[in-house]
Amino acid sequence: MILDFKHGLIVSCQAEETEPLYGSEIMQKMAIAAIQGGAKGIRANTPQDVKAIRQITDLPIIGIFKDRRPDYEAYITITSEEIDMIVQAGADIVAIDSIYRSRPEPLEKLYKHCREKYPHIKILADISCIDDVKKILTLKPDYISTTLSGYTTQTSERSKPDIRLIREITELTDIPVIAEGNYFYPEQVRTAILNGAYAVVVGGAISRPQQTTARFVKHISDLPSSEITAVGVDLGGTWTRSVLTDTHGNILKSYKQQTPKDAVSVLQCIQTCVEKVIDVNTTAIGVASAGRIDFQNGKVLYASDNLPGWTGTEVKKEIEKVFKIRTVVDNDANMAAYMQWFKEKNGCILYITVGTGIGSGIVVNGKVMRGVTGSAGEIGHIVYPLSSHSCTCGKKGCIETVLSGKYLSENLSDINNPVSEKDQKILSEYCRTFAWLLDTLKNSIDFDVAYIGGVLPRYGSFMLESIRKEFEKINLRNPGDIIKYSTVGEEAGSVGAALCSLFIDE
């Protein structure tokens, strides 16, 4: 039987002897608070804490016995006696350090002891990497936990929390995976479950206030006493722009230079753009880049052929190496969207940027929506059924083939004064198609306001009013005035990047 905590939150109620909340009575109260908050299970250390928590709940308890001995690397429930003590105290699940490393009793002996003496008790294998998992599959644990990822030599450089490890395990085995280790924010818990986690354990973020306090303090301890500034860099297809802003988004300095066409030169370009505007009060750097971005690690997961070699570039790592300042990297449309939200403070906004391609950012109550793989807002590759144009992605009919700024410049005879009959026909069809896209997005995202930025505002009010009228024809429930031109101009990406670096946590 699998215990009923699927897609639930398990709270680790633990405190070391050196910590202020140490003691079974305190951990019992901590468990009560966690349960009142909706926890589906508790992870607890020592028989004393397990027993105390068992007295106040019937929820599943994962019991462990941390036993750090100088002669052994393994330290989580490492003897048969410790298993006995944890089970007899009332645990439903026993977590065992399941890495093949030095220990007082063989791992196989522990599993056998638990299976034979307590057949009703489930075993959770605490591991650090996929190689650990492969080695223990024959032991047939009931659950596998990522608890030790980041805490062994071979995993010290892994991302925290280790979402990738969840995917690796679920691809290898059907044994339920419990995600644990460095889960500090609700979004991380949700992401873990969406990536295959059966449940998620959160510990220090909830039950160790000294650690939570320290994280808050860390983010402000290096701030200067004078006015804080941030640098934002917007990597465009033609120009790379940088700005220095204050905390209100006011531009203090700006700079731009042509964007090179190879990845190495682009990194140097970004560095130069930062150097031209940075000052002594700069506490953060934001970089806005086209493509799909691993926001947490600041790495380019995918970039188009417009920038050869950019895919795979670890922008955050490289920029922090040079400037030794916190750096945040995100998709350019996301950062422009955040800038627009920051200025207007609407509930849910859609920001569409029209340039070489067409993309968007979605911000809900100040939170940028990135999706599971960072692809949220990649609207350029929605297929428009009335188009058969070939896209650079390999598909046909992608919406950016008929709505991009590139499409307009290539098809209008006079882009600066499009008054000919041919140009008017192209623009009318363009507006109908744009309205179709907005209707599609309104029905799926249900935004409060859609802002259009990039090159489109250059065409003036005629373009906007035409899009609004076409939108009202097909979306009878919403007025056209929920569609607006962006009010943040060409610096949206760079200013948005600066503000994101200050206010959005990784």
Description:
This protein is of the alpha/beta class and 506 residues long. The protein folds into 3 domains: 9-216, TIM Barrel (Alpha-Beta Barrel); 226-336 and 493-503, Nucleotidyltransferase, domain 5 (2-Layer Sandwich); 347-488, Nucleotidyltransferase, domain 5 (2-Layer Sandwich). The protein is 37% helix and 20% strand. It has helices at residues 24-36, 47-54, 80-89, 107-117, 130-136, 163-172, 186-194, 204-207, 209-221, 263-277, 315-323, 332-344, 400-403, 405-411, 421-445, 460-474, 492-503; strands at residues 9-13, 41-45, 61-64, 93-97, 122-126, 143-145, 177-180, 199-202, 229-235, 239-245, 251-258, 282-289, 292-294, 299-302, 326-331, 348-354, 358-364, 367-368, 449-454, 483-485. The protein has an 8-stranded parallel barrel, surrounded by 6 helices. The protein has a 5-stranded mixed sheet with strand order 11-10-9-12-15. The chain has a 5-stranded mixed sheet with strand order 18-17-16-19-20, sandwiched between helices. Helix 3 (80-89) links the parallel strand 3 and strand 4 (93-97). The longest helix has 25 residues, at 421-445. The model has no long low-confidence stretch (mean pLDDT 90).
